[in-house]
Predict the structure.
Amino acid sequence: MLPGSTGCGWAWYGLRGVELRQTEDFRPGFVLYGRTRVPGEIVLYEQPLPEAARLRDFIRFDVLLHELGHHVLQHRSRKVDRVQRRSDHERFAEAFADRWKPTAQAALDSAASTAAGEQAK
């Protein structure tokens, strides 16, 4: 078993906590999404509505799809243990996200249109 592995397909990456906070007064016009307080602890700040929507879309369409690309690559290699990420893995994950981003956006837009139509009835 690898260090950090629980033996059940999960790996521990050292994240101990995520704290959500109201936005503090920083420099005007300066957007702060979050920060690492100490290794393993992350603070995320609330965002004004326009920023929150952009951040949500970035997480949905860039980060999530990129991480799914890593999962697909690991599944294709059929390795259960931890796979060391190399530059070719990052390129695959990025290409996966680029390939599926328009499809994911179209699916969510279609679902939103359908929901809006049903509410109007």
Summary: Residues 21 and 45 are 5 Å apart (CA to CA). Residues 87-120 form the longest helix (34 residues).
